[in-house]
């Protein structure tokens, strides 16, 4: 009999640490899933391709179901065995109290988390990032795409917010993406002012109010609107101020030449605005996975081709509303008015197009369900 007890004790010494080790490994499995969902870029080994990410998720769900059943059986055996030997009187009372407030909740946690954990954790983290993911950036943008339930006249828009103030972000203006002639040229342009123009900080006032995307040759062009006191009708003049090219494929990139002035610049002074040349790129391929919202960390390219300063990045979709995607904007490094520069507007228009594609596809799937 003692020899049999020794074998049981040895088995317990081996199996319990192994059981705990597998639970720790499963927790890391869920952790990388949460990170890959709410913070997909830069890519990691688990989401470097769409197929790898799909395989990772499927295996996590399958293993989570099996391991949840194992944990449930383990918890049942442990609680049943210890309950038999819990004694009587005060000891019994203390044991029952422990079960109610700690034992059973822990058992439930170990049972449901392997399979349901991702569904529980992701929304919590998503809400936190939606609220605070852009706290360290001077501007944030919400890309709001139409769903299949929206009326035909609803357009895809981008809301721009001043994020520098201690209070809640202040909405400044709205841009829209349109296809005026139903052809190959798309337009990202100013739609409305959402604050008094006089209250918008100079470095956040957009003079680049029209960005054109020609998908025949992947070229960019843009016009700036400047004050012109000599124009008695509109008091403004529109002048070309941006050219460039873009690669909308898997490895997103932009080459932009621009002379975007601040709002304090008069149209007669436009020629004095220096021309800025910039190349932007991303580290990871697959910024527009099919079936997923755009995921971008767009950075300036250094002279040697390496990636440098972060210009903008996507964060998460709005909880409970997959049509909205938040973007944190830093702008080019060290440039006044960088948050409303060509390096910001040119990528955002294309990203809004891809967000629109994703929103229609995703809400169409939801409707069919």
TrEMBL record:
Which N-terminal residues, if any, form the signal peptide? 1-27
Keyword terms: Membrane, Signal, Transmembrane, Transmembrane helix
Q: Which residues cross the membrane?
A: 58-81, 93-121
Q: Which domain of life is it from?
A: Eukaryota
Name this protein carries in UniProt: Uncharacterized protein
Organism the protein comes from: Phlebiopsis gigantea (strain 11061_1 CR5-6)
